[in-house]
């Protein structure tokens, strides 16, 4: 794997660290390519049950690599870059592994988008969030037009999109950008691993199907009932469901295998 994205394993949890200190982990084309490949591979890896995404060197991600924007980019080149970014977000949101974003320092622009694409977002007191796209005459990308309003509502999302205001930790918690604050950087990974252990303690097929439902959105009761009808009867037939019932009856801890 490239040094731009570092991977560590903690049992069934993969920890991915964005690693480009010169640019505060800006999402260059090379980093997007490596991150997309990594996330897609982990989604196909049965030994991985959850992913933690963080930034190295004191910052989560400063967004797009502005130094790479100085050259003229014809429409096909710009669209090609977007395809890479969309691979990353699709692997995070549509994949079958829960993703925890562990944020310290800046999550700006597309870095903000990555953080909001996670299932759960924890942050340190020095975390700062900014939708900086209006400052460089761009629209929010990597799905932020979808993910931020779902977290904080349309009115506040509009305010942050239009003003490009920096949101610090207290306001981020109040708005719902951040789900949980830790006391300091030392506790950030520790807490993320604790949460990941909770997320991976139960049946992976159930977690994957819940993620899929929440990603597509359940706007009506009928949609929820239809999703249940399509999936619950099939889950009754899985080895994991049978194992869970057997474990309950015999007063033991089930061993789930994702089958």
From TrEMBL:
CDD domains registered for this protein in UniProt: crotonase-like
- Identify the Pfam families for this entry: ECH_1
Provide the protein name. Answer: Enoyl-CoA hydratase
Its source organism is marine sediment metagenome
Cite the source lineage.
unclassified sequences, metagenomes, ecological metagenomes
